[in-house]
Amino acid sequence: MAATKRFRDTDYLGVSAYVRALENSLLTREQLEQLITARSYDEEVKLLQAFGYSELEPKHPEAVDADLTLVRAEALEELGAALPDPGVLDVFRIKYDYHNIKAMLKAEVMNVSPGSMLADLGRVSVEELFVAQRDNDGSGLPGYLASAVYVGREVLSKTRDPQLFDVAVDKWCFRDLLETAERTGSAFLVGYVRLQIDAANLRTLVRTLRMGKDEDFLRGVLFRDGEITVEELLRVCGQRGAGLAELFAPTPLAEAAEAGAALLRGGALTEFERLCDDAQTAYLDRARLIPFGEEPVLAYLAAKETEYTNLRIVLMGRAAGVPAEVIRSRLRAGYM
């Protein structure tokens, strides 16, 4: 039985109107193109200032991630104060909690500081997470973070395999995401989380097939609770990829799955990864037809995440001397 929504759509009237206004400030493809083709550092800085990103310092690429984290934090705090149900925002914060746990545990094993790998954007502060991880006591942490700390440390200490470690922690992350979404009672939000699970499983299936691994390996690294069942994914693996595109054809990941099927014959993963991300953006794009409710808020939050990703691709790419056409090919689809 579906959960009852904790708030009515009309409770979002004010914040929906606010978000609609904020949408006008989202970067367009044309503005990103201006950044890509800026003729000098000074021109790049002026464009960033004009676009509302005066905090970013493109001359120092090592600082871009930290600068974007601060911008993200301000946006989340501002919007969070206007939301009737904080659970909606938690769906975007949760991934940072688990990202930080992974960074801390890996750093612990390597006997180094996690430092710049951390992002103070989750439900739990980096300082609080660090204490829980250090003391191996997650009793005060929300969701499944305590389980992630315990299981993640066990897997990493026994296997020293970063892939298996990431999967172990991500399983708790997706469980946390889905239950948080279900508590809001928003079918749209639950659908978004299930699509994230499907996208993660599609990526895993394609990589497994490219590595020549079998169903036993795949079974251990798949996530449950997507729209596509684990059993269906295992069947495609057993058929060495036959039926992959057909399995995902009725889903938003249809185009990504076609690209994934083609990759089984070889090639770079870049376009496939972009299509997986774009499918999630396209799902949220449906919210543009909804006048008010949690849907427009979710779509805007996701659009900002895509904007940050694209800014990072452009700024880091230019700093590294990546050709303009390569930078363009890596950009994610925007919500405009």
Describe the structure.
- The chain is mainly alpha-helical and 336 residues long.
- It folds into 3 domains: 12-84 and 299-336, ATP synthase (C/AC39) subunit, domain 3 (Topoisomerase I, Chain A, domain 4); 86-185, Up-down Bundle (V-type ATP synthase subunit C fold); 187-289.
- 67% of the residues lie in helices and 0% in strands.
- Helix 5 runs antiparallel to helix 8.
- The longest helix is centred in the last third of the chain and has 26 residues, at 294-319.
- The chain starts with 12 loop residues before the first helix and ends in a 6-residue tail after the last helix.
Strand percent estimate: under 5%
Number of strands: 0
For the termini, the CA-CA separation is: 35 Å
The largest pleated sheet is described as: none
CATH topology of the largest domain: Topoisomerase I, Chain A, domain 4
Second CATH tier, the architecture of the largest domain: Orthogonal Bundle
The Cα radius of gyration reads 20 Å
Which range best describes the helical content: under 10%, 10-25%, 25-40%, 40-55%, 55-70% or over 70%? 55-70%
Number of domains: 3
> Whole-number average pLDDT?
87
How many helices? The count is 16
